[in-house]
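> call design_seq(struct)
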């Protein structure tokens, strides 16, 4: 019922209005956690935009868990010297991954310039950069050894995903790795309603739009076969696995790829 109501509000273009009060309702809902962190370490609207709830404790703890599990996946495969968190938000993982890769340079980039300005002011040991949607990353060719993007592709339309993958391909050094997550079967079974689920099961993507591309409310659901078709022009698949137990971005599916020698642009 909740998903159906939200779908109606989306079609009526009412969700942006709900978003204005939702962060503060979430702040109150998670008061048991939050008021132990007073004064609050992050602005509620920004935390809600990048995390989906205003719960400072869970934001902190989930970042530690994700950083540890991310390291466990990548360390056996590569020892990166430059790591890029593409879609870093408020640095949930960027700020917690350095103990796992103490020699690496960390770069966090995001389309939300308010989040980047906040990060620059509060976490100066990381390089924070704004990257506008569908524009080149402000990072040089082959500069990165490892790029990760958690719950980023999930908020992009197909055109933006293709551009995003092309840019990751460009900034990755030969033999580098790219880890990203998608909304696969686990969440699709829980979130999609009616015809949406039928479309997903047929192997086609479901884009919940009627809001700005790249925003939290723009949501993309991608079947595995479709993700492979998006990957193919740019990357070779290293591994894919369900993320329910690793919790990098909730229970989103985890993909690890490496750039092709020459992307088929």
């Amino acid at each position: 019922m909740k998903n159906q109501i939200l779908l109606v509000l989306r079609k009526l273009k009412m969700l942006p209005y709900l978003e204005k009060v939702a962060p503060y309702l979430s702040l109150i809902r998670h008061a048991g956690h939050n008021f132990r962190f007073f004064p609050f370490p992050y602005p509620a609207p920004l935390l809600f935009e990048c995390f989906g709830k205003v719960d400072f404790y869970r934001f902190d703890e989930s970042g530690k868990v994700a950083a540890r599990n991310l390291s466990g996946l990548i360390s056996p495969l590569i020892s990166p010297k430059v790591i890029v968190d593409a879609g870093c938000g408020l640095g949930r993982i960027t700020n917690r991954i350095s103990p796992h890769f103490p020699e690496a340079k960390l770069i966090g980039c995001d389309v939300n310039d308010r989040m980047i300005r906040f990060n620059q002011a509060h976490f100066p040991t990381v390089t924070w950069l704004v990257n506008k949607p569908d524009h080149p990353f402000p990072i040089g060719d082959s500069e990165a050894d490892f790029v990760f993007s958690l719950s980023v592709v999930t908020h992009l339309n197909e055109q933006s995903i293709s551009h995003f993958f092309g840019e990751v391909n460009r900034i990755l050094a030969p033999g580098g790795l790219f880890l990203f997550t998608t909304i696969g079967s686990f969440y699709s079974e829980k979130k999609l309603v009616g015809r949406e689920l039928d479309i997903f099961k047929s192997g086609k993507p479901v884009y919940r739009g009627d809001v700005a591309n790249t925003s939290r409310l723009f949501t993309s659901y991608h079947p595995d076969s479709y993700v492979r078709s998006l990957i193919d022009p740019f990357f070779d698949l290293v591994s894919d696995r369900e993320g329910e137990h690793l919790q990098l971005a909730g229970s989103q599916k985890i993909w690890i790829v490496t750039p092709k020698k020459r992307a088929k642009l």
